[in-house]
Amino acid sequence: MDQTLPQIIAMGGGGFSQEPENPRLDRYILAQTGTPNPRVCFLPTATGDADRYIVNFYTAFMKLNCQPTHLALFQRTPDLRATLLSQDVIYVGGGNTKSMLGVWREWDLPNILREAWRAGVILAGVSAGAVCWFEQALSDSFAEELTAIQCLGFIKGSCCPHYNSEPERRPTYQRLVKEGQILPGLALDEGVAVHFIGQEIHRLVASIQGAQAYRVEVRDGEVMEDVLPIEFLEYPDAN
User: Fold this and answer.
1) Is there a domain that residue 238 lies in?
2) pLDDT tens across 156-171, in order?
3) Which of 30, 126, 154, 162 is deepest in the core (most CB within 10 A)?
4) Domain hosting residue 167, numbered range
C-alpha cells in the first residue's frame, strides 16, 4: 500500500484500553504502516491526559514492535506540528469528545492533524478517538442524553461507537438519523474497526467473533440498518 495515502482507522470499542489481553486491533493499526518499528503517538486529551490511561498505553505498546510516545496538552506542550508529523501513527483515546475537540481547536490541532493525515500519517482511535474524524458523532459528552455533535469532518457522514454494548445507542442513533438530526453513517460494535483510505472504506475488521458494523440511513422514509461485511483478525499468538 502507498504509505502517502490518507488513512483513518476508527474503532467502535476495543484496543488496549478495553481489551488489554486482546491486541488484535492495535496490531492491525501498526501493521498498516508497512514499517517494522513504527512511531506511534498517543493523544489522551479526551480524559484530560489521565495518568492511568497513559500508563496503560505504554504498558500495552511496549510489548509490540513500535516506538510509543504520547502528547500531553495539559502540561507544558511541545512543538505540535513537529511532534505529530514525525509519527507513523497518531492514536487518539476515548473520553469526552466535545471537550477534546474544544482543546484541540484552541491549539489548532485539527489543521495539524489534517496535514499529518494528508502526508500519510495513519490517524487511529477508539470511541471519542474514532468518531472525531467524522462530520458528526453520537456522543455521551453531555450527562443528560446522547446527542449529535459536530466533529472534524475528515470523513463524510456520522459515526456511532459502542453500538452493541450501551442499550440507548442503537435506538437513539436510529431516531436521530430518521429525524435528520444527525447525518447517516456508520454504527460500530465493540471490537470493530473501520479502515478508510481517503473517503472509501478499505476494510472492516474485528477483534471479537460476531462483532458487527452497520450502515444506518433513511430510505423511503424509514431508517434502515444494513450489516456490512467484516473480517475477524487472526493472529497465532493472540487470545
Assistant:
1) no
2) 999 999 999 999 999 9
3) 126
4) 7-232
